[in-house]
Amino acid sequence: MSNFIIDNVDIYDGSGLDPGTRERGGVGRSNYGGGAGWSTMPVEVRIDGKGLALAPGIIDSHTHFDAQVTWDPMVTPSPSMA
């Protein structure tokens, strides 16, 4: 049994596909997917993700500006990296 499943969520998985062109799915403790089975899977918590986006494992928003800001207060190279 999964700890939780998020149903009806748009999954952005890094493939470049529009999430609206594939089946909606859910996410469990350590995996995600779509199609048959997710809607009836036994689960401790079921969350309705309608209108929300899910990007499992592909968004890492941390930076290493802590040292750079000491010699470049504007952190000028950072916009070119985004």
Describe the overall structure.
13% of the residues lie in helices and 27% in strands. The model has no long low-confidence stretch (mean pLDDT 69). The longest helix is centred in the last third of the chain and has 7 residues, at 65-71. The termini are far apart. A two-stranded parallel ribbon has the order 1-5. It has a two-stranded parallel sheet with strand order 2-6. It contains two helices and six strands. It has one domain (2-59). By secondary structure, it is an alpha/beta fold.
Number of separate helices = 2
The ordered H/E elements are EEEEEEHH
Distance between the termini: 39 Å
Strand runs, count = 6
Question: Can you give me a brief rundown of this structure?
Answer:
The chain is an alpha/beta fold. It is built from two helices and six strands; from the N terminus they run E-E-E-E-E-E-H-H.
